[in-house]
Amino acid sequence: MEGDNKVMQAFQKSFVQVQSILEQNRILINEINQNHESKLPDNLGRNVGLIRELNNNIRRVVDLYAELSSSFARSVDSEGDSAGAVRSDTRPGQKRSRAI
Q1: Which of 1, 26, 85, 96 could form a disulfide with 80 if both were Cys (CB 3.0 to 4.6 A apart)?
Q2: How many Å separate Cα 19 from the centre of its chain?
Q3: Are residues 77 and 84 in contact, defined by beta-carbon separation less than 8 angstroms?
Q4: Are 73 and 92 a contacting pair, CB within 8 Å?
Q5: How far from the centroid of its chain's Cα atoms is residue 55's Cα?
Q6: Which of 92, 39, 51, 90 is nearest to 70 (CA)?
């Protein structure tokens, strides 16, 4: 069960990071909206950098969720392996394709 504790700690750490980034995004979005509504050239110009920061934050959240998913799959696979179950054919870090 020590392995379970480590997995849970890693999940908790990742979720705290995600929540922090999402809170930053909320603040960024509010500032972007205020700048847009002001229609002042300096504020609109500032939005370019704020939107880049927002996009980078979104990428970080996606990466954190991908790591979480991969870690979870590995922990489930290792539990299944120790119980004699057949290992799934997904590889750690493998991304699923999704419909757009």
Answers
A1: 85
A2: 9
A3: no
A4: yes
A5: 12
A6: 92
